[in-house]
Amino acid sequence: MTNMMKKIKQFIKNNFKHLSYFYKHLGYKVFVSFLLSLLVGVLDGFGLTMFFPLLEMVDGKPTDNSGGLGGLTFLIDGIEALGISLNIYSVLVIITVFFLLKGIMKFFEQFYNVTTRQYFVRKLRYENVNKFANYKYEAFVLSDNGRIQNTLTGEVEKVSQAYRNYFMAIQSGVLVFVYIVFAIITNAQFALLVVIGGGLSNLLYKQVYIKTKETSRKITRGGHVFQGLLIQKVAFFKYLKATNQIRKYSQKLRLAIDDIVKSEIRIGFFNSLLAAAREPIVIIVIVAVIMFQVSFFSADMGVIVLSLLFFYRSLTSLVSMQNYWNQYLNVSGALENMQSFMLELSIEQEKHGKHKVDSLNNSINLHNVGFSYSNSPVLTNISLKINKNETVAFVGESGSGKTTLVNLISGLLTPMGGEIYLDDIPYKEIDVSTLQNKIGYITQEPVIFNDTVFNNITFWAEDTPENKERFWKALNSASIDTFVKNLHKREDSSLGHSGVLVSGGQKQRLSIARELYKNDIEILIMDEATSALDSENEFIIQQNLALLKGRYTILVVAHRLSTIKDADKIVLVDKGAVVEVGTFNELIKSSPRFREMALLQEV
Length: 603
Known about the structure:
Layout (H helix, E strand, L loop, with lengths): L1 H14 L3 H8 L2 H21 L1 H8 L7 H4 L3 H9 L6 H46 L3 H6 L2 H8 L1 H26 L8 H17 L1 H30 L1 H6 L3 H51 L5 H5 L3 H38 L15 E11 L2 E12 L3 E5 L6 H8 L7 E6 L2 E2 L5 H5 L2 E4 L10 H6 L6 H13 L3 H5 L18 H14 L5 E5 L7 H14 L4 E5 L11 E6 L2 E6 L1 H7 L1 H9 L3
Parallel strand pairs: 3-8, 3-9, 6-7, 7-8
Antiparallel strand pairs: 1-2, 1-4, 4-5, 9-10
């Protein structure tokens, strides 16, 4: 007995462990699905049960159903209690009514399952998109980007398939339970009627097939749009995160998701209609044939009726249950991966303080700040003051910690030691996203979206006269307005994937224009923004920076010292520590290491 209980518990653990996961996301919808499936089976059972009195009538027997129907005699008693006299024609009509009701219920079951599945998928995607927007940058850096990409795209569809197959298997099991009490062998006549019914349904629903095909193509196109947006979100995560644009971009993803869901529901409607209508049509054909044979040929109904009984139903449902369960097992790994991935996202969510940043009034101060990746120290005991509207440059060898330091200041990373203050308020008390609203970020690899110049600069702002004026003003400040005016479609010209249609210098100036377009930018970060440019483009960017000096707090991570000669403060970083701070001329005089760097670069 103990071994049997263990086996039962193990069976439940192995086969129903994901039911709680579905229930967590769907709640009562799970049980509604089961109830609809049960109603379909019961209505089907009632319809088939009525073939028993029909068989007795055609054989000339009295309609005493107590022996043939057992516990189902209440059905006949109930019909007679309604004042309906049972004869061949009334029974055939009752059979038709039951199967029409079953068809209607089957439609609701199928369509409800489609809408519930799309609700489930949309909820998963929304939850992943929102959690990913609030994902810690330090966790993202250490994560497997391939897994993120695959889980957020293909795995979601597999989880959807897992949901469908899981519940279809259970629903088929419910039907097996309903039909298992009956066992009647089928014959070729039934198969012939199925072929006739199937042929008629194909003729009647030809237009539905055409619409289904059209909608399927729309789903494919919508999937392409969603995948394209998601790929760019992953590729440009750092920029979107640092400037707090990630939530705006997430809205574009949600709109793409909604378009896909609408198309999926539409195609689900057509599929549900076809699935619901096929069998009622077959039954109508069968009833019509039976009535025709009885009325005109006095045909022997025994074999025909027996072929419609429950053994065939039970066997069909059992095969369906096995097939669906096997298909569920094929994608159950994706479901487990999704559970694990969402748990990791939940654990690594950013925690924001309550203080909202309206402006940088005085300074940013770092006191004994330290940071490590996987227990490997990157920065140690960093103390530094950055005044409002000051241009500060960070220089040093590759791997010295310059970019990590800037990432801490921008709120992308959280110090593992020490404290950072914004106007004497600790970062841990600040809603960092409100600080990031004040940040413009320009990276070594410029962030260019596969869209028009206008949308790239304005971040998909509405095309109003006011926004247009700001757009051209930003282009002028970045010295890129003449280039855009000479494009074939001007501001409506596409820049291609990652800005493939423009040069490196043009991409950098477009990136600067995007940050200048924003009204509330106070801190401008340039992370190796000119390292990949030729001397001419570097000089143009340098001129742009000179014009911005004093208007913004500018943080420059630089490899070339020529770009930061006019900085108010140069911070020399070496092996995770600040070793020198001063102007260019001061460091040339006081720092042998900086002087050597300048000589090597012939500055």
